[in-house]
Design brief:
- The structure is a single chain.
- By secondary structure, the chain is α/β, with parallel strands linked by helices.
- The chain has two domains: 2-100 and 283-312, Medium-chain alcohol dehydrogenases, catalytic domain (Quinone Oxidoreductase, Chain A, domain 1), CATH 3.90.180; 118-258, NAD(P)-binding Rossmann-like Domain (Rossmann fold, 3-Layer(aba) Sandwich).
- The chain has helices at residues 40-46, 107-127, 144-155, 168-172, 190-201, 213-221, 244-250, 263-279, 295-301, and strands spanning 2-6, 13-16, 28-37, 59-60, 64-69, 74-78, 90-94, 98-100, 136-139, 161-165, 181-184, 204-209, 223-231, 253-256, 287-291, 308-312.
Length: 313
Amino acid sequence: MKAAVLHRYGVPELGDFAAPDPAAYPDSVLVEVRAATINAIDRVTAAGRHYLSPTTFPVVAGIEGAGVTADNRRVYFGRPVSPFGSMAESAVVPAGFVMPIPDSVDFPVAAILGNSGMAALMPLTDAARMKLGDNVVVLGGSGVVGKLAIQAARLLGAGTITVVGRDEAALAATLPLGASAIVSTEGLSAVQLTAAILEASGGVDVIVDYTWGEPASAALAAGNPGVHLVQVGDRAGATAVLAAQRLRSLGGSVTGFMPVHHGPESMIRAYRQLVGWADRGDLIVDYEMVPLADVAAAWERSATVRHKLVLAP
């Protein structure tokens, strides 16, 4: 079969790879792949900088996708059995990591709502325990995951939704998705950024943080009592300075987030909620389909574009 093959740490290349034999993997499902996402975790894993990075080669890249099973079920799948990743014509997947998708939800959307969707919804519901009317700030909200988090916060009944980032045009594009205010970090000191977030949000209850660094410190300083920051990404820096007295005085908290911390049942529940919203037409998912043959070029582009690149085997 054709696949995106890693022969060493780096960028996968289109090549031939032995198709999986489902009989060799009990309690697994063979999926004909129709869509496979390129995620940040795929890039880090392929570079050898993640605990999931392969130790032997060759392997097929990709942690998730969507497709059709041998008995003609439309499914989302994650965690394909190594060395068979999702970026291939077929993958073999543990039965517990296959979930049905409605006929009305396209394969690329179903694939995106896995890793990206859970990183958008679960910080609000499972980590922060967001309540109706809470004021939400999304740091780095102009990317794929951030835009899904904005829509999730709106659908969950947030009071205000303030999106913080650098690019004014990209920030403005979040307003039709449900953002009530946008704040650009360009040219602002930490004190000015805090003041801008406070004015835009009316005081922050929940922070979904895809940036860390100075924006995280500034957003926490604009918090209401009990403010909860959920740390998901670190695009603005690997470290942040948090004022101890401010954190104590607010009773604030900072929680590191990964979907697996909340268990498979929570992940399944979150995915079903996301797919249900998509089925009703309540979510806008911005993506571009790319032929599997163009995986190397798409891989390089995926780190900079603000929409999801999805491979079509």
